[in-house]
Amino acid sequence: MLLVENIHAGYGASEVLRGISLQVKQGTVVALIGANGAGKTTTMRTLSGLLKPTRGSVILDGEAVQNYGAAKIAGLGLAHSPEGRKVFGPLSVEDNLLLGGYSHLPKFFAYRAKAAHDLARIYELFPRLRERSSQAAGTLSGGEQQMLTIGRALMANPKVMLLDEPSMGLAPVLVQEVFKIIARLKEAGITLLLVEQFARSALQVADYVYVMEHGQIVTEGLPSEMHKNERVLAAYLG
């Protein structure tokens, strides 16, 4: 579903990614773990078209997209839920969700009818968002904003979803809630690439794991293998 081969990318003269290769198969959850500054967020930005790679390829559902802009890649079925949540604070919860569906909803006729179907699906997954549908997104709690960010990405009916640090800045009890949501997305067959600072929690929901250091993949394998890997144990699971 998503194939990344030998991607190099960075900012100006600074190269952050140095030959990243990974694969996310349909219906799986793949975790990308690593220390702060390893290049995880740069990887997500490159895959979603926010940053252009200098070399390598990104194949989404059989199509090379590494030279496309973010809007076109989103339209082809890749949704990016960024770190730090980044909701549109002055807009209502429902308006934030509607913006997430812009790429595939009709622009004129039947917009509301199609949007109502998608909204019902999101509200079923996140009942709290239904309760706060008319509330300004900026007034939500951190956990509620994370639900909104994920729900907004799901409104696009993506083929692949990128979740970048969904637990960032959340209290431990809310971190548990976020990972319950990710587990439900997995049960629903959503294809996910997950970047997460809490490696143990990520390994609990992942089908496959890549470990990143200094802009490169240094090891990969099944979660069960990561629990036996001394390098991973010492750095992330100790």
List keywords for this structure.
alpha/beta; 238 residues; 6-stranded mixed β-sheet; 4-stranded antiparallel β-sheet; globular; single chain
Oligomeric grouping of the chains: single chain
CATH architectural designation of one domain: 3-Layer(aba) Sandwich
Structural class: alpha/beta
Rounded average pLDDT: 89
What is the terminal separation in angstroms?
A: 33 Å
Helix percent reads 25-40%
What does this structure look like?
The chain is of the alpha/beta class and 238 residues long. It has a domain at 2-86 and 158-236: P-loop containing nucleotide triphosphate hydrolases (Rossmann fold, 3-Layer(aba) Sandwich). The protein is 37% helix and 25% strand. The protein contains ten helices and ten strands. The protein has helices at residues 40-47, 70-75, 93-100, 111-125, 127-131, 142-154, 172-187, 199-205, 223-226, 230-236; strands at residues 2-11, 14-24, 29-34, 55-60, 63-64, 78-81, 160-164, 192-195, 208-213, 216-221. The strands form two sheets. It has a six-stranded mixed β-sheet with strand order 6-7-8-3-9-10, sandwiched between helices. It has a four-stranded antiparallel β-sheet with strand order 2-1-4-5, covered by helices on one side. Strand 7, helix 7 and strand 8 (192-195) form a beta-alpha-beta unit. Helix 3 (93-100) packs parallel to helix 6. 43% of the residues are buried.
